[in-house]
Amino acid sequence: MSKEAVTWALQQQVADPGAKLVLVALAHLACQRHRCWPGRAHLAAVSEQSIEKVGQDLRALREAGLVADTGDRAGPSARAVVWVLGVEGPVEPGPCSPDWKPPF
Hints:
Blueprint: H1 3-11, H2 17-29, E1 35-36, H3 40-47, H4 51-63, E2 67-74, E3 80-85
Antiparallel strand pairs: 1-3, 2-3
Helix pairs in contact: 1-2, 2-3, 2-4, 3-4
């Protein structure tokens, strides 16, 4: 977990509470480079929303410039979007450190 990312996420102005919760969940899962790759089903379970609503939330967060799709894919199926949070401004290239493990 990146405490810096969670603090940043809590400070962001997000009009929709569900989208704010998804942003905080992404921050909670982020590595030291502010990247994470949870599935929508996981985000739906954590935020107690439908998978469709999580998809809408992710689009809204992306459009607001709070998160970006790095273009990379990860996870067991190598299909999960690797998100980067806008904690430090523009997206920086590069993966998380090799020893980092997601908290779930």
